[in-house]
Request: fold
Amino acid sequence: MRLGRRAGVTGDVDDGELVRLVGGGDRLAFQALYRAYFPRLARFLDRMTRNVPLLEEIVNDTMLVVWQKASSYDGSSKVSTWIFGIAYRQALKALRGLDEPLEEAPDVAGEEWHEPEHALAALQLQRGVGRALDALPLEQRAVVCLTYYHGMAYQEIAETLSCPVNTVKTRMFHARLRLKDMLSEHMEETR
Amino acid sequence: MNMQDPSNVAQHQDVQSLLPWYAAGSLADSEAERVQQHLRECPECRAELAWQRRLIETAAPLPAALDQERALARLMARLDEVPAPLAQPVSKPSPAAPAPSRFAGALLDWLRGPGDWKGWAIAAQALVIVLLAAKMLPAGAPPDYKALGSAPAATPDLLVVFKQDASVQDVQRLLKTSGAHLVGGPTATGAWLLDVEAAQRSAVLAALRADPAVEMAELLAAEGKQ
Reply:
């Protein structure tokens, strides 16, 4: 499923054309670009912070930079790579500055025993995965999230995060080991 | 597969490192084929693939409290506070403009400054005023009221934020004289969405901006709607 459907205000204008218009100060094009990217950026950043107002602010900081820099976008990378790269740097800045402690999602296992067993297992797995991802270092989390939940190729992730391809693979490798370790009890049945 | 053979071990490790992107469907064809071939003879990689696919399927839903239109309304107000993008002729691809580095630094400082959440307080106030105003509209007047967060089927034309001290009469008068219909809102920043006849749009926008009861008015509609 494509999450970032445009809100029907620009027809079939592609992202590159939108950015070009934004570079010329076109506010309508900017709003269309914003609506196209909000859900995707929110999903990406949701793995970086649990704080909804902060998440929206990081999206806005990102899109403000897009507004400011659109005229210097040269098309050498995909629009999504460019925008996600800005979002990643904004997130690092915001979160490092805050040094926000990773909140543990409330452990509700005890309260929800009355739920049907399979629903409970699915919910627990979802929470377990969320917690495990939250426990990864930011750099690893970004790689995992862009790979699994944004369908980005590793070359594109390298470009987005401004790091070598091998670094992407190495981060993924370490992230997988840690996830496996943390999720061993949730995911046993697939082995 | 014979794991004593060093070339098999190398191939296994290579495929292991590619599996996340294979599971997510983002590998180039040639690499995907290589992975497929290896999967046929390697139970360990098949199990690993199943594990990764399970992980992908458990994507948690986005927090329900996220509100795209509210966030956008906040950002549109901020655009007015920063200088417009370097005006480039839109007709030709722009050569990379020299980055205004000092300005960018100042912008970042500003972005990282203390959060500006006073909008939230104003929002509460505006909410009360405009809810009252909405009640006073003639029955059936709001043509197609959309709560924010629902699908943006009807694109509102204008976004307006009333001043904190705007009275019910002010709001009522504005809606009546402009011929605008209230079709959505409030966003958490107190912005309301108005529907205006295409021909009246710029006149209404100018009138709203000039009105002392209006904090901010912004054009939202697409050209295509005209």
Summary: The two ends of chain A are 28 Å apart (CA to CA).
